[in-house]
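Worked example 2:
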Amino acid sequence: MSSANNTSLANQLGETVKSFMSSLSEDEAQVTAGSFEKLYVSQIAENAINVGDIAPDFALPNVTGKPVTLYEALNSGPVILSFYRGGWCPFCNLELQALQARLPEIRALGASLIGISPETPDMAQSAIEKHQLEFEVVSDIGNKTSRHYGLLFTVYEEMRPLYLKWGLDVPASNGDDSWELPVPATYIIDTSSVVHTAHVDKDYTRRIEPEQILTALQDLQA
């Protein structure tokens, strides 16, 4: 199976984390490390939708305002749902690029891909254009679907000034002032609406490898 990039997504993410942390001042690094420690011991996403669960349906607008419905998409084959934080997140951008690179193989296995973020349609459109995405990207305004999937996370107070300093304006991207985001998650859902594969990690610097997605889709065909 060919790959557009021989470097694993995990390696790309790891290098990005290393580069980012080395660019921080001592105070910024201390606050950031503290927020990660708090995240690791938290119960965030502990009750998230998981393997064997029925995936909750949704109807969310794509960038043109057209509603995209999970259960309608499942009529055509398995669906991969990729919950991501937003186009401002460097880790999400690497994941979106990796998914786009494997999109032909995903489609060849009869599946479709839907990206979900709380960003407004205008902001989602920017991500589509920037990364030349050819799959549906929908806006989960108010994080209602993330909440149904048990993925809701609120950016810690101490991190918010740093996000803004770094140009990561979550409220502006989401069109509200909640600072709520989804825990990044990837679900592979079979045509019976059952979750076949789930990758949920509250450490937002870690994502599923596209190769694992392709293997799971092959399992569904077996």
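The two ends are 17 Å apart (CA to CA). Confidence is low (pLDDT under 50) at residues 1-5.
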